[in-house]
Amino acid sequence: MIAAIVFAVLIPLLIAYCYKNAYSRPPNFPPGPPSLPVYGAFWIVLAHGFNDLASAFRKLGEKYNTNIIGLFMGPVPTVVVNDSKLIKEVLNREELDGRMDIILFRLRSYWKKLGIFFTDGYFWHVQRRFSLRYLRDYGFGRRDHTLESVMEGEIKEMLDLRTGGPKYPAEKEIVKGDLVYMPYFFSVPFINGMVQVLSRSTLPRSEYHALWALSRGTVLFQRSSTDMGGALSLTPWLKDVLPNYSGYKPLVKGNQYLLDFYRTLVEDTLKTHDETYDRHFLDMYFTKMKQEMKEADRTTYSVDQLVLTCTDYTFPAASAVEFVLAMLVERLLLQPEIQDKIHEEIDRVVGRDRLPTLDDRVNMPYLEACIREQMRVDTVVPLGVPHRAMTDTKIGSYDVPEVIKSFTSKLKSRFEHKLIFSSVT
C-alpha cells in the first residue's frame, strides 16, 4: 500500500521534472529540439538522420526555421551553425577555438590532453606553432622537390601493384586479379609521404603491411564513433557496461595501431639523436624537448606529445584522402561520361609516357574541379571538429554560454550559377 502511494506521488513528479527539463534553456539560446533524460537531444538528432548527421541538422534547422540550432547533448548546451558566413566567423573567433574534454579524445592520447587536434589554450598554441613552423621545412603545406620525388616513387609502386600483381603476402589482400580493395589501395603513398615529412625516410614495399594495418586501424577508429562523439562521449560509463556495443573496444583497438607505429618510430629515432645535428623534424623536436627540460620548470614537450603530434598529422593521410579518391572512383564508374572527359584531359596535358606533376595542375582544371566537387558532395567530416566556447559570447543574435559545444555544418549547398562551368565541360 505504501509502495503504491509512493509510486503514485513520484511518477507525476518525475514526469513534471522531465517536462520542465526538456524545455529548459539558457537565456536567449537558439531554438532547437527538446532534451530527453541523460542524453539530451542526441537521440532526436539521430532520428532525423542516423547515417547522415549533417542532413539531420539541416532538417532540424528547417523544422525550427533557423540556421543556428540550439540543443543539449547530454548535459552540455550545444550550438550547430548551418550558414556559410556564420561558419567562417565561428571558425575565426579565438574565444570559440576551445576543444571539449571528452573520453573519445582522452582514450586516444594515453588519457591525457595531448596532440594538436583536440587541445587548446597555451599548450595548443606552443605545439601547433612549433610543428607547423618546422614541418614546412620538409614539405608539409608547401612544395618540396624531395617529397615530390618520394611521392612519385610511391605512386609507381602502387601502379605496379595493380599492373604487375602482388609481390608480398599482404598485397594479396589489396589486389586479387582484377579486383582492387578500396580505399586501402590508395593508402600507402599518402601515409609514407607523411612518414617522409616527419623522419626523412619511408617504409619499403616489403613493409607496406604495417602501413595498411595503420590505415585499417584509423578507419576502425573513425567508424566506431560519430561526428558528435556517440553515446560513449555523453555517458562514458558505457565503456564498462557495453565495451563492444558502445564502440569503446574498437576505438581503443583502432587507435592503438597509430600509437604503436609512431611510438616505435619515435623511440628508435631518439636512440640515435645527436643534439649537434638535426636530420629531420623528429630530431628538431627532440632537441627542443631536451633544451626545455634543462632550462624550464615546466614544458609542453614530451615523447608522448610527439607521438600524438605525428598521429594527428597522419590521421587525414591514413583515412580521409583515400576515402575521397575511392568515392571519386565510384562516381566515375557510375558516370563514365565524366571519366572520359578526365581521361581526355590527362592524355592531352600529361600524355602516357610520364606521371603528372604539380606543374601540370594549372593546365588540368576539369580534373581539379571534379576532385573538389567530390570533396563537397561526399564530405568526409561534414560537421567538422567540435569547438568549445572559452567565454560567454554571441553567435549571430543569440547568447552562447561558456563551455558550450559548437558544430559547423554546411553540406551539399545548392549552387545556382551552373553556366559558370559551361566552358569547362
UniProtKB/TrEMBL annotation:
Pfam families: p450. The keyword Lipid biosynthesis does not apply. Residues 1-16 form the signal peptide. One of its GO terms (biological process) is organic acid metabolic process. Its cofactor is heme. PANTHER family: CYTOCHROME P450 15A1 (PTHR24300:SF376), CYTOCHROME P450 508A4-RELATED (PTHR24300). Belongs to the cytochrome P450 family. This is Probable cytochrome P450 304a1 isoform X2.
